[in-house]
C-alpha cells in the first residue's frame, strides 16, 4: 500500500475530507482559536473613537507594549491615534462629600505605571488596555511592540469607569505591514492631529468646536497639551494648559478640593483652591453639578470638557513612581 503520510492537499480540497487527518501547506495569515461567528460580520474595522460598551468589534491598532501579568494573563497596550468616547459616570456626590476616601481609579491596571514607561506612549490618542486570559501563548508571542494588528471579535467594556478591551476565546488577529493602506491612513490622521499649526490637534476629539466656557484660563496664547504630555514630561515640573473633564470632586477641607481629571490620554489627581476654582463657596452644590455634568433627574454624570492650567511638581525623585507626581489647578 502506498504511504500517503506526506501527501499534501490543497486547502480548497480539504472540505471533502471531513473527520480525516490531512496535510496542508499554506501561509498563516491569522491566528487565534476559531469558533462559529454566528453570522456576525467580521470584516468592518472601526477606530477606538467608535467603540461601544459591551459590543464585539474589529479594531486596527498599533501595539505599544505587551505585559505578562502572570502565567495565563497578559495586558496588550494598543493605540490608533483616536480618542475613546467619554464615559458616563454614575452619580455619587453625596457619598463623595461624606467620605473623602472614595476615589476613582486612575488606570485599569492593579498598580501604577512608572513615568519612564509612560514616556514611551504617544502624547495624543487613547492607549487602550486589552486583556488576554488563557490565550494561546505562542499566538501572544507574535504580538510585538510597534506592529500594526487587525483584531477581530474583541469585546470592549467599561470597567470601574475606564475603557478596556478583552480578547475573547474566538478572537483572532492578523499582523499588517506598515505600508498597508489602512495603517498609512491611521498614521496620517495622527500626524495631522499633532501638527503644530493646528489649533485643535491636542484637544479631545469630542470637545469640538471648543471646550465649555464655564472656566477660562488667563493664558489664552498658550497651546493646549494632553495629560500624557504632563505625565511624561522628563522635567517633572511645569505649567500646562489642558482640556479635561472633572470626573470627581471631593472637598478635603473648607479651602481645598481634590479632583480627578481626565482626558483621552490619562486620568490624574489634582488639587485646587475651592474659593479660586469656584469663585466663592456660595452655590457650591450647583456649580459642582454643572462642572461635573449632573442633570436634574439623571443618575449619571456627563462632565463637560473645560480648559484649565495645571502646575505639576514631583514629591520625590523616583522616576519609577507616578504617585510622586502631583498637580494643582491655578489661574
Automatic annotation (TrEMBL):
Domain POT1A/B-like OB fold per the UniProt entry, residue ranges: 210-319
Domain of life (superkingdom): Eukaryota
GO cellular component: nuclear telomere cap complex
GO biological process: regulation of telomere maintenance via telomerase; telomere capping
Matches recorded under Pfam families: OB_POT1A (PF25507)
Annotated Gene3D superfamilies: Nucleic acid-binding proteins (2.40.50.140)
Entry-linked InterPro entries: NA-bd_OB-fold (IPR012340), POT1 (IPR028389), POT1A/B-like_OB (IPR057620)
GO MF term set: G-rich strand telomeric DNA binding; telomerase inhibitor activity
Coiled-coil residues: none
Name of the protein: POT1A/B-like OB fold domain-containing protein
Amino acid at each position: 500500500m502506498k504511504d500517503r503520510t506526506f501527501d499534501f492537499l490543497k486547502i480548497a480540497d480539504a472540505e471533502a475530507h471531513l473527520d480525516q487527518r490531512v496535510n496542508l501547506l499554506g501561509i498563516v495569515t491569522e491566528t487565534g482559536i476559531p469558533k462559529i461567528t454566528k453570522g456576525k460580520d467580521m470584516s468592518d474595522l472601526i477606530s477606538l473613537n467608535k467603540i461601544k460598551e459591551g459590543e464585539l468589534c474589529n479594531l486596527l491598532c498599533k501595539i505599544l507594549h505587551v505585559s505578562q501579568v502572570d502565567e495565563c494573563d497578559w495586558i496588550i497596550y494598543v493605540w490608533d491615534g483616536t480618542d475613546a468616547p467619554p464615559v458616563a459616570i454614575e452619580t455619587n456626590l453625596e457619598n463623595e462629600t461624606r467620605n473623602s476616601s472614595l476615589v476613582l481609579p486612575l488606570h485599569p491596571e492593579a498598580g501604577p505605571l512608572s513615568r519612564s514607561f509612560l514616556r514611551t506612549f504617544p502624547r495624543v490618542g487613547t492607549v487602550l488596555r486589552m486583556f488576554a486570559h488563557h490565550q494561546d501563548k505562542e499566538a501572544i508571542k507574535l504580538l510585538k511592540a510597534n506592529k500594526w494588528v487587525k483584531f477581530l471579535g474583541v469585546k470592549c467594556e467599561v470597567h470601574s469607569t475606564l475603557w478596556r478591551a478583552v480578547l475573547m476565546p474566538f478572537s483572532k488577529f492578523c499582523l499588517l505591514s506598515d505600508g498597508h493602506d489602512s495603517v498609512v491612513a491611521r498614521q496620517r490622521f495622527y500626524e495631522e492631529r499633532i501638527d503644530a499649526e493646528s489649533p485643535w490637534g491636542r484637544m479631545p476629539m469630542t470637545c469640538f468646536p471648543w471646550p465649555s466656557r464655564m472656566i477660562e484660563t488667563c493664558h489664552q496664547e498658550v497651546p493646549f497639551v494632553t495629560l500624557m504630555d504632563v505625565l511624561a514630561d522628563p522635567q517633572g515640573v511645569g505649567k500646562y494648559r489642558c482640556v479635561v473633564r472633572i470626573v470627581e470632586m471631593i472637598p478635603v477641607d473648607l479651602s481645598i478640593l481634590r479632583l480627578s481629571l481626565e482626558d483621552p490620554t490619562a486620568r490624574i489627581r489634582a488639587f485646587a483652591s475651592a474659593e479660586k476654582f469656584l469663585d466663592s463657596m456660595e452655590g457650591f452644590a450647583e456649580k459642582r453639578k454643572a462642572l461635573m455634568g449632573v442633570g436634574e433627574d439623571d443618575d449619571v454624570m456627563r462632565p463637560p470638557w473645560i480648559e484649565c492650567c495645571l502646575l505639576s511638581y514631583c514629591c520625590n525623585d523616583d522616576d519609577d513612581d507616578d504617585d510622586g507626581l502631583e498637580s494643582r489647578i491655578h489661574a
